Amino acid sequence: MVKKEAMQAEINIGMIGHVDHGKTSLVKALTTKWTDTHSEELKKGISIRLGYADATFYNCDKAKGSEGYNATGKCEGIGEAKVLRKVSFVDAPGHETLMATMLSGAALMDGAVLVIAANESCPQPSTAEHLMALSIAGVKNVVVAQNKIDLVDLKRAKESYSEIEKFLKEYGYEGAPIIPIAANFGTNIDLLIEAIEKHIPTKKKDDSKPLKAFIVRSFDINKPGTKIENLKGGVLGGSIIQGKMKIGDVIEVGPMDNGKTFETKITSIGIEGGGMLKEAKAGGLIAFGTKIDPFFTKNDEMRGQVVGKKGTLPAPTKNIKVKVKLLKRLIDNMKTDLKANEFVVLAIGTSTTVGQIIKNAGQDEFEIATNSFVIVEKGENVAISKRDPSGWRLSAYGTIQ
Description:
Elements: E1 11-16, H1 23-31, H2 39-44, E2 51-60, E3 69-70, E4 81-91, H3 99-106, E5 111-117, H4 125-137, E6 142-147, H5 154-170, E7 178-180, H6 189-199, E8 212-219, E9 235-242, E10 244-246, E11 250-254, E12 262-265, E13 268-270, E14 276-277, E15 279-281, E16 286-289, E17 306-309, E18 317-326, E19 343-348, E20 351-362, E21 365-374, E22 381-388, E23 391-400
Parallel strand pairs: 1-4, 1-5, 5-6, 6-7
Antiparallel strand pairs: 2-3, 2-4, 8-9, 8-17, 9-16, 10-15, 11-12, 11-17, 13-14, 13-16, 18-21, 18-23, 19-20, 19-22, 20-21, 22-23
Helix pairs in contact: 3-4
């Protein structure tokens, strides 16, 4: 990686919605990066892992209305480009079988662009589940991209718009702006950027709090055949939730399979595109080099880990108590009960784990034994999925007691 001064993104914005509605195409229109890079993603044409890409938004100082908003920095006769801010996009898979991956991404999101295709009825199953997941994660600021307007006539475009308005009102996001776009042709991208800038503000985060970061990717950056003396430590990718980190800091990472945490040192901090930082704070996605054996970081094997300053992480556990609120199913509008001995999938931070309900510990409180160790804090949100005939579905959410 080339060492150069760089600017960290201020905010993580989720790109969410039903499968094949154009999320990844829209990320490419905004950032020029195609986030489906895994071989299975390219083969199947859908996102499987969380994708991410950074974009810098600009506005031309002599432009009228929305025409000056862009992500290229080019103004073409309407003044000079002024930097508004840099953002990170988290591209979440839309397929229902990959809901756990989407939920892990929601833990990082400060706002979201909900992509809804105009050529399909609204809502589709994953559209509703993704919006519920945002609500569970406490994400309130949403912009809707009504995509694929190039594939429908004016009548259908208006019908789709009305369906979206009704859907947003039902799920508590009434008033979210709806921007008709055609991502593949770059149509109305300026209007979408304007809506993002006005409706998804950068949150104020406290740098003085102890470091806490969630990991969503991990890498071995060494090429095959690299000599032992030239090997570099494993790289972790994710987002700082609070506090800050700098090169040379000793950090604590966990949980390990044995229920312990371990220490390592930060050797480098980078951002998407190869830029390097001396220090990073809460905001957009970063990647940081460590002294971890790269064998353990290959192929995202450390996804779901929590990072903190030495001595600050809670002890890993396999037993949690959760105060639960059940969600209504989209198809029949019924709530699904949780029962003792039942297996569920839990999304906590960026980690997902299978758990078994041990007992009802009180009114709406359940004690759950997890298959793997987790690091949790009191008040932290948990998303709970149950199996039904079509697969694992988001069924409830709760808070750690």
